[in-house]
């Protein structure tokens, strides 16, 4: 790397890695001047994404999503519960987002990351979004009902962050959506006591008292699938899909979520003024 | 075609605003901000020595604690804390007092819709009362989109629950015309057209979001007038 005016003769003696650690902002700005980023991507390019369905064999639906190095594992377990009195034909989804210490150096066992509950809440807002008059979420809770007023499905969605390298919400949303796509309802039948129990076998011919409530294993119907993109803004440069290093030095972070009919689900931008924003919406 | 809202306001009308500063005499700065029935009390303590563990010691650190009216602190409160923290970090001059922590405590007194904008306005007023150096003030507004496709401002709780989408927007304070008019233009758009924070809930088409933004900007001028008068 050639010498920079600001750092004087230090940079000509320093190695690239040391320069990167000590003056991260200058390091990245030098790259931005050439319209490129330290890992060789152009400003608007996202990292390679991979998705694997069915990563957890014991769960009813699961997926492993990787965007670059950021890895998230989502798993869904279904349980039968009695629905509430106010909404007797709706099920329930509980979303939990965990950031175990394996994912990054700043998370410690006793001190949870402060970004974890925020991502968790954003996820549940995006997936559920229950409104009285109109539905605009991905999943209609009425799909989760079994016997109206008596039994409904409760889906526990757990997302574990295995590696946190920027763009956490994007990866989490991708893995959650994929896990729901992969979800298959387990077979259930009505017990003699009138309770619904899960039937593990595949045989259709059961005992005379039991009757399968849902005869075939079905999949969940997704209304409109949301996609999200996180970008950072720095001095009029817009960088798509930042890594953790870029996120920590650039102040403003924008997350845009669109659904499959190109409507805006969320435009989330905490902090930091921006002048021309219309290009960011793309 | 003016739509009659439940309390008789027009679409662009805000609820009556009230701001008092110096409500708490032990805090370094405090303010109450109320928009209609929604009332938030904010207190500022600081700057105190030392920053938290992972924070940059060359800058001042801001810590936000959000106290709900009832119930325990859960995920929504943490999210509000984070949004407030990043918003206030962008308006404070962080390099003036390095290696210090400023704590802002927000207490919800009454929630009747548009809670987060009310809290941001209250926190801003409290920071001014405490004398923390700021670049500019922030004005926050809530716009919501009921089914008709038009934008209404500053909803009350019932309207917020019934609407299919809403957006909280925070804009910088419009600069007073002490300087000449021409110097307010920075590049293409004037400085007060930047967005500091935007949080949306619910699905809406992109054009509706842009309309919310325009409406929000127009109202932010009125709000900053009010803020300036009450200081």
TrEMBL record, chain A:
One of its GO terms (cellular component) is nucleolus. The keyword rRNA processing applies. InterPro entries: ExoRNase_PH_dom1, ExoRNase_PH_dom2, ExoRNase_PH_dom2_sf, Exosome_comp_Rrp42_subfam, PNPase/RNase_PH_dom_sf, Ribosomal_Su5_D2-typ_SF, Rrp43. It comes from the Eukaryota. It is found in: Cytoplasm; Nucleus, Nucleolus. One of its GO terms (biological process) is U4 snRNA 3'-end processing. Residues 46-186, 225-273 form the Exoribonuclease phosphorolytic domain. Keywords: Cytoplasm, Exosome, Nucleus, RNA-binding, rRNA processing. GO terms for molecular function: mRNA 3'-UTR AU-rich region binding. Belongs to the RNase PH family. This is Ribosomal RNA-processing protein 43.
UniProtKB/TrEMBL annotation, chain B:
One of its GO terms (cellular component) is cytoplasmic exosome (RNase complex). One of its GO terms (biological process) is rRNA catabolic process. It comes from the Eukaryota. Residues 13-133 form the Exoribonuclease phosphorolytic domain. One of its GO terms (molecular function) is exonuclease activity. Keywords: Exonuclease, Exosome, Hydrolase, Nuclease, Nucleus, RNA-binding, rRNA processing. It is found in: Nucleus, Nucleolus. The keyword Iron does not apply. The keyword Nuclease applies. It holds the Pfam family RNase_PH. Its main location: nucleus. Gene3D superfamilies: GHMP Kinase, N-terminal domain. Belongs to the RNase PH family. This is Exosome complex exonuclease RRP46 homolog. It comes from Escallonia herrerae.
């Amino acid at each position: 790397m050639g010498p920079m005016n600001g750092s004087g003769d230090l940079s000509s003696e320093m190695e690239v890695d040391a320069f990167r650690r000590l003056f991260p902002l200058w390091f990245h700005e030098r790259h931005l001047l050439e319209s490129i980023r330290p890992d060789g991507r152009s400003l608007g390019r996202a990292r390679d994404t991979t998705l694997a369905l069915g990563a957890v064999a014991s769960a009813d639906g699961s997926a492993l999503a990787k965007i670059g190095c950021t890895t998230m594992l989502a798993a869904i377990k279904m349980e039968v519960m009695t629905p509430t009195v106010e909404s007797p034909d709706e099920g329930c989804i509980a979303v939990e987002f965990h950031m175990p210490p394996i994912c990054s150096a700043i998370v410690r066992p006793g001190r949870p990351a402060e970004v974890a509950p925020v991502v968790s809440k954003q996820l549940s807002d995006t997936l559920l979004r229950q409104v009285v008059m109109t539905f605009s979420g991905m999943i209609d809770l009425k799909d989760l009902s079994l016997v109206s007023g008596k039994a409904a499905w409760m889906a526990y969605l757990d997302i574990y962050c295995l590696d946190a390298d920027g763009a956490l919400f994007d990866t989490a949303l991708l893995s959650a959506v994929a896990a729901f796509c992969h979800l298959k309802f387990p077979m259930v039948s009505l017990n003699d006591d009138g309770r619904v129990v899960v039937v593990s076998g595949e045989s259709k011919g059961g005992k005379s008292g039991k009757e399968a409530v849902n005869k075939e294993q079905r999949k969940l119907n997704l209304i409109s699938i949301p996609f999200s993109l996180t970008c950072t803004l720095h001095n009029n440069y817009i960088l798509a899909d930042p890594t953790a290093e870029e996120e920590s030095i650039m102040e403003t972070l924008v997350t845009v979520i669109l659904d499959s009919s190109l409507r805006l689900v969320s435009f989330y931008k905490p902090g930091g003024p921006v002048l021309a924003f219309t290009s960011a919406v793309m | 075609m003016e739509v009659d809202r439940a309390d008789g306001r027009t679409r662009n009308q805000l609820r009556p605003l009230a701001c008092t500063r110096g409500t708490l005499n032990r805090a370094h700065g405090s303010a109450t901000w109320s928009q209609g029935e929604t009332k938030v009390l904010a207190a500022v303590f600081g700057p105190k020595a030392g920053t938290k563990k992972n924070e940059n010691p060359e800058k001042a650190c801001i810590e936000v604690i959000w106290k709900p009216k009832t119930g325990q602190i859960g995920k929504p409160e943490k999210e509000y804390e984070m949004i407030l923290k990043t918003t206030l970090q962008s308006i404070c001059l962080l390099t003036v007092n390095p290696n210090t922590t400023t704590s802002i405590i927000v207490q919800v007194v009454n929630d009747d819709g548009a809670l987060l904008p009310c809290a941001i306005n209250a926190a801003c007023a409290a920071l001014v009362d405490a004398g923390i150096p700021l670049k500019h003030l922030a004005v926050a507004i809530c716009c919501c989109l009921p089914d008709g496709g038009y934008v209404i401002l500053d909803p009350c709780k019932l309207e917020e629950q019934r609407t299919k989408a809403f957006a909280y927007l925070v804009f910088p304070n419009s600069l007073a015309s002490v300087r000449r008019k021409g110097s307010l233009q920075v590049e293409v758009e004037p400085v007060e057209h930047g967005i500091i924070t935007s949080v949306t809930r619910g699905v809406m088409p992109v054009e509706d979001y842009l309309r919310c933004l325009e409406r929000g900007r127009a109202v932010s001028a009125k709000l900053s007038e009010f803020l300036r008068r009450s200081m």
